[in-house]
UniProtKB/TrEMBL annotation:
Its main location: membrane. It comes from the Bacteria. GO terms for molecular function: ATP binding. CDD domains: ABC_cobalt_CbiO_domain1. This is ABC transporter ATP-binding protein. Residues 6-236 form the ABC transporter domain.
Amino acid sequence: MSTPVLEVKGLAYAYPDGHQALFGVDLHVHQGERVALLGPNGAGKTTLVLHLNGIHTAGAGSVSVSGLPVEKANLQEIRRRVGVVFQDPDDQLFMGTVRADVAFGPANLGLKGDELDRRVMDALDKVGMTEFVDRPPHHLSFGQRRRVAVATVLAMEPEILVLDEPSSNLDPASRRELADILRSLDVTVLMVTHDLPYALELCPRSVVLSGGTVVADGSTYDVLTDDVLMKENRLELPFGFDPRTTLPPAR
């Protein structure tokens, strides 16, 4: 089998106050996969994500992206390869125009002129936001800002797109539009979410993290229909939602 785009081996991490957040996590994600990372609050999901682009560094174990270790000497390239879209787009958008926000990352890599413009417009085209290129981000709706936040990451041409609660605070139309965008992207996706129907719709595979360890890794449908697993790990489906009778799961 080919080298995973993302490989986590034996990852353990404790915060400075002594709280142990991860206990030997193993995870592999291959090119083109869309994987949901599920688990209750406090499971270690955010801590794991912060290791993927070097914001945290492993206390024990290792993380690599396409064979490149996540360590200090490689951080610039790792952060190009692993694009993280935060839950709140306002944490990601801080320039005066959409164009300037999307251009910020590639410009820091040295792109300029026509090549920079092409990168910006390509990224905005992928999220359906080209017509807003010269608008101030704070004039956009929340859903539009989230799409621009995704574009700021796509402009870096990452190998892995990591999304933190991508459907949170979206109205139904914006939620569906973002799902259509994510399905259309030619990029590996790791999606951290409590939105279990969204995981079923978008991610064929789910990994359940609980208590700092991986407790399940399989098809999203199998995870969501395992009543014992769901109850033990405080995962609850919305009232009235039953994967057994809903639309076919993601492929």
